[in-house]
Design brief:
Elements lengths: L4 E4 L6 H8 L3 E4 L5 H7 L5 E4 L7 H5 L6 E4 L9 H6 L3 E3 L6 H17 L1 H9 L17 E5 L3 H12 L3 E5 L5 H7 L2 E2 L2 H7 L2 E4 L13 H6 L4 E5 L8 H10 L2 E6 L18 E3 L8 H21 L15 H22 L6 E8 L6 H13 L11 H7 L3 E7 L7 E9 L2 E10 L3 E7 L2 E5 L4 E8 L4 H11 L4 E8 L5 E8 L5 H8 L4 E8 L1
Parallel strand pairs: 1-2, 1-3, 3-4, 4-5, 6-7, 6-9, 7-8, 9-10, 10-11, 11-12, 13-14
Antiparallel strand pairs: 13-15, 15-16, 16-17, 17-18, 19-21, 19-22, 20-21
Helix pairs in contact: 1-12, 5-7, 13-14, 14-15
The structure holds 1,4-dihydronicotinamide adenine dinucleotide and 2-oxoglutaric acid (AKG).
Protein name: D-3-phosphoglycerate dehydrogenase
Catalytic activity: (R)-2-hydroxyglutarate + NAD(+) = 2-oxoglutarate + NADH + H(+); (2R)-3-phosphoglycerate + NAD(+) = 3-phosphooxypyruvate + NADH + H(+)
EC number: 1.1.1.95
Amino acid sequence: MTKPKVLISDKMDPNAAKIFEERGCDVDVITGKTPEELKAMIGQYDGLAIRSSTKVTPEILAAAPNLKVIGRAGIGVDNVDIPAASAQGVVVMNTPFGNSITTAEHAIALMFAVARQIPEANARTQNGEWPKNDFMGVELTGKTLGLIGAGNIGSIVASRALGLRMKVVAYDPFLTPERAIEMGVEKADLGTLLEKADFITLHTPLTDETRNILSRERLEQCKKGVRIVNCARGGLIDEAGLKDLLDSGHIAGAALDVFAKEPAKEHPLFGTPNFICTPHLGASTTEAQVNVALQVAEQMADYLVNGGVTNALNMPSLSAEEAPKLRPYMALAEKLGSLVSQLAHGNLTEISIERSGAAAELNGKPIEGAVLAGFMRRYSDTVNMVNAPYLAKERGLQVRSVRYEGEGVFNTLLRVTVATSAGPRSVAGTLFADKAARLVEIFGIGVEADLEGHMLYVVNEDAPGFIGRVGSLMGEHGINIGTFHLGRRETGGEAIVLLSVDAPIPAEVITAAEKLQGVKLVKALNF
Ligand SMILES: NC(=O)C1=CN([C@@H]2O[C@H](COP(=O)(O)OP(=O)(O)OC[C@H]3O[C@@H](n4cnc5c(N)ncnc54)[C@H](O)[C@@H]3O)[C@@H](O)[C@H]2O)C=CC1
Ligand SMILES: O=C(O)CCC(=O)C(=O)O
């Protein structure tokens, strides 16, 4: 098997490259490339490991037909076009915890720095000025911190701030009252937070909802003398408004680690009194960089080598322990999805995936993804578990997942049903010895067959001599039959024949089969 090939395109702890190699991947570390240079080289890679410098745009993705996974050694993934990656079937992963303590500490450090104007005092002292009378700071003790975003980083900042004897007021629409009590913070709406806070720190992702969350109007609503720290993302604060309100003295100080446009080599805020900044250093500690580099390499290699999925933003997680158990189910699920889409006709508006027996105990999301991948293959060659749910949604296909806990005839069963204009159509399969995928039912008719390679599916009237006629037809056309399976609704009723053959079935054989006595439907199937 050829080794998966990974490109590390941003500066990353060297442990990442080591892990990729140890886990069986080939790895190139090529940093600092322009988008054009990256576009020219990305086509050969299965994995792309990045921090924040590489921007993964639709153009880069279009030049990456082999790409299977993008790993962000960090938290924010606003430098990756996730919808475009998903549409192309590329998994996007991040490392949601590896740098949170470090980033929270940077926010606290900037809060102190802005409270005591440390950078300016340092610069002027080293300049030989000894400007002791020019600096008068404020204490943090007893002050109110307004926290915008109370997730991982926000809650660490809150705990550190409480340790500094600050009061913490938090605004986060997803913060439950119970969690607020557990964190020791007061849950508030944004308006209340702005009225109360002496310091504000931001800890939300940059989304359509959070963009400009501290707009000029909201900055004006802040308590006079507020100090603001942003270690999350540029774009959360109106930078022009911030400059004007710092100049007017309404805002007493601001510290930014992040800017709307990075790298920020020139900026109207530079040189503003009581404004300090760092060049997106929130995650830059030895500890955090080792954490995120190791984690991203482990996660990406696990996906590329074993199919394990951790911390993906566009796909359900699948642990390394679950992956081997789920793999045969996913193969069965994909085949059932493919079978039902090859057999069902008309306007397919709904697909339902039932798991019963042992299958009901498993993580249903990957199985659902595999059914959809099999089902959507009829519409796209490049479909996989990642993009299948998106393609299904795009086509207006409703997806239902159902699990039955009780024991049935089979100790494990997957059933896939599609709603068609002629009513529901379902196929079902099981696993033999926990491994081998077997079809056990087509459209209510019991049958037992492998779903492999090229197959002929015939619906006919159950009558003597039919098997011989099908066998002779195949022989006359030089087609070797591998396996032959039969099923019927009742004696003399509707019956099916499923046979596997060694090569694709030519169109003239299908036409000839349709003319056989008693035949209602003939289809060539491919798996
Ligand atoms: N400066 C740096 O180097 C770093 C910056 N970051 C940034 O910090 C952000 C936060 O990271 P985590 O705390 O780990 O993320 P998280 O996902 O744990 O927390 C984000 C919180 O924001 C809240 N939120 C979402 N929309 C909101 C809204 N409209 N108003 C208020 N709250 C809202 C969410 O409910 C969630 O609790 C990341 O998205 C990333 O952009 C992260 C690491 C390093
Ligand atoms: O990789 C970095 O230095 C930036 C980290 C960051 O912004 C993040 O993890 O969201």
